[in-house]
Amino acid sequence: MANGASTARGGRGRPRSEAVEQAIIEGVVRLLEDGVPLTELSIERIARTAGVGKATIYRRWDGKEALFVDVLRVFEEPDPELPGTSMRDDLVCLLEGLRRRGLNMRSSALLHNVFAQMKALPKLWEAYHSTVVEPRRRTTYDVLRRGVAGGELRADVDIETANDLLVGPMLLRTVMRPDASLDDGLAERIVDTVLEGLRPADRSGT
After folding, report:
1. Which SS3 state, helix, strand or coil, does residue 56 take?
2. Are 94 and 140 in contact (CB under 8 A)?
3. How far apart are CA 174 and CA 61, in angstroms?
4. Rg (CA), the chain
5. Which of 1, 24, 80, 105 has a Cα at 20 to 30 A from 167?
6. What sign does the CA torsion over 98, 104, 110, 116 have?
7. What does the pLDDT look like over 66-113, one tens digit per residue?
8. Treating both helix axes as pointing N-terminal to C-terminal, what angle do 159-171 and 87-107 enclose, rounded to 10 degrees?
C-alpha cells in the first residue's frame, strides 16, 4: 500500500514511525475487507487489530475521522503535478486525475462500499471534504484565475460556475452513471468543449 501512512497527522515534537502508521492503516483496511462497517470501527478495535495501544493512534490522529481520511488516501493516486504550460493543459491534467479515481472506484468494491458508508458519517464526510476535496477545488480555481489573467478565459466568467462546468461531467460519470464510459481522452473532450464557450471573443472582428 503506497503513500497512505505519510499523510497521517501526528502530535508535534514527537518522532513518528512510518511502520507503525502503516500497520494502523493496514489494520483498518483489514477490518473493512472483513466486512466491518465504518460505524463499528472503534479506536480500541483498530488498535487491537494493528497490535498497538490506543494512545499510539491518538498521537498520530486526533480521531477516527482523520484516520479514515488517511485510509482513503491509500486507495487514491497522488494529486497530479500540473504541467503549467497553459490553463487548458492544467485543466486536462486535473480532470484526468478525476477520471483515474473513477476507474479506481469502479475496480475496488471495498472503496465503493466505504464511500457509500461515508455519507452516513457526517464528521467523516466533512473531514474528507475539508482535507481532500476542498484543496483540489482551490487548485482548479487557481488554474482558472491564471487563465483569466493570461487571457485564456473571459474576465467575466464566474470561477465557481466554470469549475462546476468542468468537474461536473466527470463526477456525473464516475458517481451517478457507473455504466458510463471513462475512456482515454475524456478529460480532453470535456475541457475543450467547456472552454469553447468560455474563451474570450475574437477581437479581430472576424
Report:
1. helix
2. yes
3. 30
4. 20
5. 1
6. positive
7. 999 999 888 777 888 999 999 999 999 999 999 998 888 887 878 878
8. 30
